[in-house]
Structures are given as C-alpha cells and as structure tokens.
Amino acid sequence: MCGIVGAISKRNITPILIEGLRRLEYRGYDSAGVAVLASGNGIKRTRAVGKVIELENALEKEPVHGHLGIAHTRWATHGKPAERNAHPHLSERLAIVHNGIIENHSALRKKLTDLGYTFTSETDTEVVAHLLAHHYKEKPNLLCAFRSTLRELHGAYALGVIHQGEPNTLYCARMGSPLVIGEASEEQFIASDPLALLQVTDQFIYLEEGDHARLTVESREIWNQRNESVEYPVLRYEHAAHSMDKGEYRHYMLKEIYEQPAAIANTLDGTLAEDHVLTAALGPEAETHLADIRNIHIVACGTSYHAGLVARYWIEEQAGLPCQVEVASEYRYRTVAVPPNTLLITISQSGETADTLAALRHAKQQGYLASLAICNVAGSSLVREADWRLLTKAGPEIGVASTKAFTTQLVALLWLTTALAQANHRAPEMISANVRALRGLPRLVEKVLHLDQHIEALAATFTNKQHALFLGRGPHYPIAMEGALKLKEISYIHAEAYAAGELKHGPLALVDENMPVVSVAPSDSLLEKLKSNLQEVSARGGQLINFVCERAELDNGDGITHLSMPWVYESVSPIVYTIPLQLLSYHVALVKGTDVDKPRNLAKSVTVE
Ligand code: AGP
Q1: Where does the Glutamine amidotransferase type-2 domain lie (predicted)?
Q2: For the whole model, what pTM was predicted?
Q3: Is there a domain that residue 318 lies in?
C-alpha cells in the first residue's frame, strides 16, 4: 500500500524524506512525491510517475530545501498511476499525504465541488485536502480545522499535513492505517513504518486508532479521538541493528532466503530447553492459560494463511486440539461459531494487514478465550491489539514475496504446537523430538541452501511456460500452495496447488507435455500414496520436477527430474521443503526478467481492504 513520511527539523529535510521513501518503496511503487515548505517560498511540490528514482531525478533538476515536509510513495487505489494522482495533494496553502481509503469520498467530492473547489485528480485523497482548506477558511486554526476534517472522514487513513499558515508545525492522524512518530533531538518525523526512519532515529511512538498529533522541533502533542491529550512511551525499534541494504545479493528476496538460518535461530533464541519448550516466551498470562485451550481458530492472509494451514496438521495431530484456519477477508464478515475455550491466532508478517486486523477486532466480540498474534513487527497494530503475542524474529522483510517471514512463522507455530502438547501432557518423546528438530533446523536449512545451483538449473524448464501445477500431501499440501503463490507473484506464471490425491478429480485433464508439475516428496507416511499420484502425471506426459527425500525411491523416466533433499524429521519437513520452492520461483523470475522485489500490482503491506 502507500507509504508516507514527514519531517520537521532545523536542518534541510528533503534528503531524509527521499531516503524514507526509498525505504518505503516496498509498500507502493507506481508514483512518488514530496512537498516541502521552502524557506520564504511557500510549499514546493515535486511528483513523478514510477519508482522513487524518478522523483530523485526530478529533484536533481530542480532541488528543494526546507525544514518541514511530507512525502509519499503510491500504490494506486482510486485513479491510475499518473502524476496528477500522485501525492502530496494541495489545496490553497496546504499539502497532504494519505495512506488508506476514504470511503465517503464521492459524497465529499460533491459537497466540495458545490462549494467551488476544483479537483485535479481522481483520488479519494484530494477531498481531504480541500475539506481541510474549507474548514481552515471557516476558522483559521489548523488544529480545529484538522479535527473538523477528521470527523467527516469515513474509512481508513494515515495522514500527514503541512500548511503555510503554520510553517513550524507538522500534523498527522491515523485511523485504520499505520503511523508512527520518530523522535530525535530537535527534530521529529512521521512514517507508515519505522523502517523509513531508521537512518535518523530508532526511537518511536506508535499512534493508536483515532489519534492525531501536532509536532514541532521541540514539542509533541497527541490527542485521541475524543480530543483528550494522551501520552505514549517512546520505544526503541528492535530491528534497528539489521542491515537494510541488499549487501552482496542481487535482490532483497535472495538475501532474505539466505537469511533464513539466522532468522530461525533468532526466533528460537531462549525458547528451548533440553527436552521441552520454555513457555515463558509467551508471557505470564498466556503461559497460565495454555492448558485451558480446547480449540484453535487461525486467521491470516496470503503466505501467513499458508503457515496457518500447515499448523492445523501439527496442532490436531500433536496437541490433539481441533483447529480451523480461515482467510481473514472471509472471516471478518461472517458469524463464527466459537466453542468454549477457543484461542484465536492471527498470523502476520507486518501486523498491519487490514483484513487480519479487522478479523482480530471482529473476533473480540465473539467470546474467545484470548487472542494471540504471531507477528514479525513488535510495535505493530496487531501485536498491540492482541491479548498475547509470539514474535518471529526474522528482521525486516523488504521483498514483496514473503520468504523468511513464512519459515519463521512455521517455526513459531511448531514451537507453539509443542507448548500446547506439553500443556496437554502428550507423549514426552514427541515433545523432545520436536525440540531436537527445531534446534537442528538452522543447520539443515543452511544445507538445503547449498542446492541453489541445482535449483537454478531447473528454472529453464519454465522459460516458455504459462502454467504450472504444484502437488503435495498432508502438511506439504500447504507448502505446495505456498510454492505456487511464490511462482505466480514473482514470475507471473499461472500456478495452482493441489492435494496430490485430488488430481484425478479434475486437474489431471490439464496435464500434457507442456505442463510442469512440481511435487514435494518427503519421506513420510504418505510417500507411497504420492508415488501413485506422480505416476498418473507421468503416464500423461507431464513434466515432473520432484523435490524428493534422498531416502525415497521414486521412478525415473522421460520428463522426470528429481532434486534430492536431505532426510529430515517429519515435523520440520514442511519448513525445510519450503526453501527449494522459494529458490525455484526466484530463478524462474530471473529467467522471465520480472521485477523480483517489486512484482507488478502488488504491495508488501496490504493496509487497505
Ligand atoms: C506473500 O508473498 C505475499 N506478499 C502476501 O500473500 C502476504 O503474505 C499477505 O499479504 C499477508 O501479509 P502479512 O503477513 O503482513 O499479514
């Protein structure tokens, strides 16, 4: 989605805004813009279609300097990517940037048109600029005008505002879209994500829903929706130590794939004893209630949803608890039957996904025992609003395609399954085997990463392909789903995943010599069943690519390629088999020449519905 940055300082803030946009570009990359209050010259706005580099080129030709400014990188919702639709939007003597969707923009547009305002864009955001100008005209007090404006907005917003009438003040507000204030000595910043500001500060204040704030170089005032003054702690950003550049890697996605051994080790740090898990990692309240949980509902989107699907196999088999998994965009609008003592688990890399957040808020009215957020961002809305939290420690994930966030979510979920199994006095041998397998996981993932060159060689199979099928069974079926999602999102090849046993019920009709079929074939209790399914594909001339355990014996033959995987303990096998599928989609995307880190039409953090 869109990303916003704002700054007020005694120094020139334009380079800070631009660096902020560069760091936020993963949120939206169809256009970008900046508005700076240039000393003595009013607000100077520069906008450009395309990536942030285009904006930088424009600023190089006509530089702007100032101590107060706002900036934006856009992911189009209303109005196609075009300079006229890029933010900031201006009205009279003010400029605004916005992330979110103003749902009543049509009614407001009509009202403002009737009042004589002219619109120059198709965006929902421009109504906010004119509405604020209108209220300021009625009463030239920016705080009052801002509050009157916010009262009229329906929908989601994070807003940054500057006005020539108050040249030393930066205003901001949030409702339904994330916004943080970054604090440093004699300067203050706002941003959609702390990552945007790590070059200037690691100290952040996380605004709550409905808050608005007024910032100067030496003061910070925050009010809630009822206009009551509120104060929040200033928190140090935990990921600040992580490197934010690509380093030696060609893409963030590749770097993040290679960071998985460390990300997994960090996520497990301090959570494992010799033969059991240390449930204190969940916090004292959750720890006390673990044994009370009788049912589990998991809600998430995209890749995080796939992590939930894998966890269902683990939780039902190992902890003996019924578990259902649902996409958040469906769950949030339906009446859910919640049996007594049910735990709601939301899973999210960003903790700001609009559907997942709405699902959590919906769940709060449904009588759950508690809600647990599994999330990669400690200060995110999801983490702050859930009763309990379990943090993945993947570090910032910049590539739009989720990789290390997914494997660390799986690690957290297997750890949680083991904690639930422990609380329910399930077989101690199984618990200690899980602990051993989790401990050995970083090394195992490292080993699989060494297969990279072999996987790269497979990518050529996809050169002229438009479609692909992915097959798996048991907990590897969601892994096949994740493999298919990765391939489609970064290589634009249409890919579908099936539980291998379902093939003969329809999809087998698609199989011929032009259809690559990727299978996940660990040496588990379902291997013999899977073998029969693969024979069905071979018999129809399908091109099989099998990621197969070194201990499993699969048929060879024309059109069959095997990539040998190390033997792994069954519980952690879905995590290990994720790695080659990530690498495969990465190399296919290279062959196809797509923008790996910023695939078309997508955004990293989906903060609108
Ligand atoms: C995965 O590669 C995607 N980019 C996407 O499906 C993502 O997992 C989804 O939007 C959910 O995001 P979250 O984990 O931040 O909530």
Answers
A1: 2-218
A2: 0.81
A3: yes
